[in-house]
Write a structure and sequence with these properties.
- The structure is a single chain.
- The protein is mainly alpha-helical.
- 71% of the residues lie in helices and 4% in strands.
- The protein has four helices and two strands.
- Strands 1-2 form a two-stranded antiparallel ribbon.
- Strand 1 and strand 2 form a beta hairpin.
- The longest helix has 46 residues.
Amino acid sequence: MSASLLIEVLEELVNSHAKLYEVAKNKTEIIKKGDIESLQQVMKDEQAQVMSIQKLEAARMEVCRKIVKTVHNPTISDCLELLQPADAKRAGEIADKLRSIISELKDANTLNQQLLRQSMQFVNVSLSLLKPTKQSLNYGKPVNGNTVQTDSIGKISSSLLNMKA
């Protein structure tokens, strides 16, 4: 009874992690496109999937506690030692598949994190280029210490876009 329940929960965990992996791959493409609205929707889908996985993980822990009563937080490996050989083999195969999917998911999330970091750096650089500065990049007569007079009317240039060549 407990063995079949463990196998069922593990299969559901594999399916949920596979769905989350698909969401992560979709998220990668959306990040590459720079589509913020789609990214927000994907993040909602991702959050729903994570909540589902958390519920399944709680169910797995409950089933494992029923199988292994001597350990407070039993692992799948702890359970495999107490199952019948056929059930242990099947549960072990599913657990290996789960580990593999989790590893792929971790790699996809790392890639997404790097892409988001690069996007943020690009936005910061773009904003810093457009942001007004008090110092001019042109040669000219110093006015008020640090600033430089750059135009013929005597105004202080306040942006890269306002400078004369």
